[in-house]
Amino acid sequence: MDRKEETLRIIDLVNDTYESEQAWHGPSVVEVLRGVSSRMAASRLTPNTHSIAELVFHITTWRIFAVRKLQGDATFDITTKEKNWKTFRTFDELEWETLQMELSLSQEELVSELEKKQTDHFLEDTVPGRDYTYYTLIHGLIQHDLYHAGQIALIKKGLSLAGFGDEDLDDLNQSSIFDDDFDAF
């Protein structure tokens, strides 16, 4: 019987990156999003930076890309800026809840597709339409999520330093990412 030990380790990494409250690397994606209001999600630190909402859309888009590739879809791609980096003309609480729900669903779909794999052999297969393996794709996705989680944490910190607004910062200041270690950063 073939094994899928590496796939199970990867699933653990995907879950830790997304929602662990004790991952050694620091706050997970879910942790950094805790306490972010729709107003904060739509705000930019400067005009030429992304908002938290845009980053969440981007993270979700690449997770959907990975799911579609795991399903064997050779034609699915993210070829336009609109598919990769959505700009929100209007943004409200409903839009923010929808974005977070889509991110959560992308997590469930990603883990589900990985769990369907019977062995680790697929990890060495080339991703349809690409020149890298599934192993590289999935580990790249983990790194991608962590990179953008760090950006979100810095945006939250920047908004708090800019005096974003007491009503928005009440929930934010309760967030675990602003503990003593982060303040020393």
Task: Show the helix and strand layout.
Layout: H1 5-19, H2 29-33, H3 38-42, H4 52-70, H5 81-84, H6 93-116, H7 134-161, H8 166-173, H9 180-183
Low-confidence parts, pLDDT < 50 over ≥5 residues? 169-185
Assembly state of the chains shown: single chain
Number of DSSP strands? 0
The Rg value, from CA coordinates, equals 17 Å
Fourth-tier CATH superfamily name: dinb family like domain
- Secondary-structure-based class equals mainly alpha
- The best one-word shape is globular
Write down the overall mean pLDDT.
87
Number of helices: 9
Largest sheet: none
Q: What is the CATH class name?
A: Mainly Alpha
Q: Please name the CATH topology.
A: Four Helix Bundle (Hemerythrin (Met), subunit A)
How do you describe this structure in short?
The protein has 185 residues and is mainly alpha-helical.
Written overview of the protein:
- The chain has 185 residues and is mainly α.
- It has one domain (5-183): Four Helix Bundle (Hemerythrin (Met), subunit A), CATH 1.20.120.
- The chain contains 9 helices and no strands.
- It has helices spanning 5-19, 29-33, 38-42, 52-70, 81-84, 93-116, 134-161, 166-173, 180-183.
- The longest helix has 28 residues, at 134-161.
- The radius of gyration is 17 Å and the shape is globular.
- The termini are far apart.
- Residues 169-185 have low confidence and may be disordered.
